[in-house]
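anyone seen this seq b4? input:
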Amino acid sequence: MVKHVVMDLKNLDIKVSGLELVEPPKLSFKVVIELDKKMEKGTEKDPLLQQEFHAAASEVLEQTKTTIERKCKVFDQAFVQMVNKGASDKDMQKQLKGLNDAIKNDVKVAEKGAELAAQKAWSDLQKKKKEWSKFKIKVAVSIAGTLAGLAVSIAAMATSPFSGGAGAAFAIIGFIKSGVTLAKDVGKLAINIEQSKVILVKNLAVVEKAASNPALNATNEVSAAVFQEFLGVSQPSVKTVEEAADTLKAKYAQMIVKMHDLSKTLAKILKEQDKLKKEFLTEVGKKLKKHPIKDKRAQLVMISKALDTALAKNYETVQNAIDRIQIMYGETRSWADKIKDLMKRVKALTIKDPKALKVFREALKFAALGLSPIDGNSIATGTKDLALGVGGAVGGYAYDKITSKALDGTVFDAA
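predicted toks r here
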């Protein structure tokens, strides 16, 4: 037998237009005809023989390429849909295996088809050349193909859970809890300050009355004056006045610090919210870079706007709380002058200079007239509302809810 190579193509590209994910395989196609030795002379150079065998093999090759191209298109569309729906790595692998199994089957069919086509071509040639009718041939067809692949890795395409900004969302919830606690503390201090102020004023009223009586000795009798009609305190004295004053000053100082801390904590929430958005969109950008969708910019803009919408109410709630605490802080700072006036009156009770004491007694006649009320109830109510408002934003910062709203209707929407 003499071998005649009809076709020997290596790494033949399967070219398919419009594919987004699938990388088609390459084919190596070889067809060899074994001729009877008695036919050897002249047959290998016979144009008719070569043409018929080559034409038969080429037809099978083109049919095989067309079949594989169609399969690649169908599977490519399936892959894109799977990616858009967040298919798991396991499902993607299974689909890819299905494509390659189908191609392997096409190769087997092509091998048999090429063999039959060559045999048919030989039969047709025998009819044209009677002298070949008594000879037989052997046909050997081998088709080798690489595996079809994907333009990017399955792990990159399969939509893994988002985590960008999750740390910021967690931090925000912590800041909200701290903010609620601080708001409650401010409210309690406001009430305590008002109560302390009431106690101080009542003590002052008693002791100042004693101090204004010329018949009493300022250094002795005033400090031990007793007025049973004074509600809640049986023995108002310079000492009780000083203790009430110290309590008032301490509570006020604490309140100012707490209000500062609350304002800074609320500002941190907005800062972390910006961080959340930045980190989340950075991750979106990275995923889009690997994603097969063509208009990546449109997707990024859509997600960014949806994220702003998802965070807008939270931002408004926190910003309103910041505005309110600033207003309350301004109101609270106005108490400083009132407290200073009270402290002057407390200090005046320890005056030992008779001349200064006389001036002090005259001033007492007008002291009560200029004292404005400290409205701790107003601050307490305001901080209570603020705490409820900020606390209510906790649910709005749940990471899964934020990301779900941001990704709704996009290529990353797993719904």
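The chain has two domains: 2-157, 166-407. The chain is about 65% helix and 10% strand. kinda curious what u guys think
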